[in-house]
Amino acid sequence: MRKRASAAVIGLAIAGVSMFATSSASSHGYTDSPISRQKLCANGTVANCGNIQWEPQSVEGPKGFPAAGPADGKICSGGNSQFAQLDDPRGGAWPATKVTAGQGYSFRWQFTARHSTSDFRYYITKNGWDSTKPLTRAALESQPFMTVPYGNQQPPATLTHQGSMPTQKTGKHIVLAVWNVADTTNAFYACSDVQF
Q: Which Pfam family name is an example for this entry (predicted)?
């Protein structure tokens, strides 16, 4: 009886460690306003997307952007080779959300699993960037146009940030949203194409 009880305790401990070890992998999210490339793939608006169509919430990569994080040219995929289709500029033909410079905007995240959060940061491409090339740091403004501190709290299933689109923008741009997780070394990345 004692051996069986010990085995059960050890089995539960292993299961608990396994669940804990995978908890960061289950914390996922993406933006759907403005709609992100991964959501466009998941809802079938854009075809030939590969695996991201089944898991738009999984664009996870190293945090610390822009000093660290995914390599240039691999930012939209979070550096995940299985999601490389997100880095493909498709000749600048990704569908874009129509916006106006300076307009008030509701930036929205959907979370399939929630995680304690340091902050959310929103970057945008510079005027004159080349929409036919994969996204690089040089193509982005050096500072986020909006940062939302989150105090290591856990977000709800849907989270909206009220802000404004940057001013002085015309034409097509990418909004890069970065969700910095508080208690792992990773962040989640979402590229949304917008048309001013």
A: LPMO_10
3-state secondary structure (DSSP) of residue 178: strand
Residue 60 forms part of a structural domain: yes
The tens digit of pLDDT for each residue in 50-94 reads: 999 999 999 999 999 999 999 999 999 999 999 999 999 999 999
Q: What is the pTM of this model?
A: 0.86
CA dist 177 and 109 (Å) reads 9
Task: Give long-range contacts, CB 8 A cutoff, 24+ apart: 142-150.
Answer: 142/66, 144/178, 146/107, 146/121, 146/122, 147/119, 147/120, 147/121, 147/122, 148/119, 148/120, 148/121, 149/118, 149/119, 150/117, 150/118, 150/119, 150/120, 150/182
Domain with 130, as residue range(s), is 28-195
Nearest partner of 57 among 47, 42, 70, 69, judged by Cα: 42
